[in-house]
Design a protein that fits this description.
single chain; alpha+beta; Immunoglobulin-like; 2 domains; four-stranded antiparallel beta sheet; 8 strands; 33% strand; globular
Length: 189
């Protein structure tokens, strides 16, 4: 509903601005309020998401687990609200956004969940929610502005994944035991 109102308001402002083209001032000489707002100055919120599966992980994982990450960037581009959902997954220990294009593993740049103890059992539903700011960036993005993360995402160089571990050696024995990542998805607009 908020998005519909925002788009309707933006369209109304654009229409009013177009109608006032050529007549920037009223008969009293005051500048029109509609003419003062240019279309290039209207900033709509950015939203990104990904759907995660085992076959998208590097290397591919034989898992029926899946996940969803939803990101909403603030209007001032200084924070990102997120919701991480995972289902049909066991022993979740961590989740991150990583730097890297599709098909290549890369370093984590922000924590979404964890670290948590191995062997925690089955999970279905919301895994975590929160807000990301520049202070949360790690690895190659540590001490950089949030715009560095946004640039990675906008250029297709960021993915989210969920790590699992059953706590029993050896690792990588099957679903619920992939410490380097069980499900993954590239973040897109």
């Amino acid at each position: 509903m908020f998005r519909t109102r925002l788009i309707s308001t933006a369209a109304l402002l654009l229409f009013a601005g177009a109608c006032s083209q050529g007549s920037q001032t009223s008969t009293s000489g005051a500048t029109s309020a509609a003419a003062a707002i240019r279309p290039s100055e209207i900033v709509l919120p950015l939203n990104f998401s990904t759907h995660m599966h085992g076959h998208l992980e590097t290397p591919a994982r034989p898992s029926n687990a899946q996940g969803q990450l939803i990101l909403k960037v603030s209007g001032d581009r200084q924070s990102i609200e997120y919701k991480l959902i995972a289902s049909n997954i066991n022993n979740v220990t961590a989740s991150h956004i990583h730097q890297g294009p599709a098909g290549l593993a890369g370093p984590p740049v922000v924590f979404l969940y964890g670290p948590a103890a191995a062997g925690a059992g089955r999970h279905d539903g919301v895994l975590s929610t929160g807000t990301i700011t520049a202070a949360n960036l790690i690895g190659p993005l540590a001490n950089q502005p949030l715009s560095a993360l946004l640039s990675l995402i906008e250029h297709g160089n960021a993915y989210a994944n969920v790590h699992t571990n059953d706590g029993i050696d050896p690792t990588n024995t099957g679903p619920g035991d992939f410490p380097l990542g069980e499900i993954r998805g590239q973040i897109v607009k």
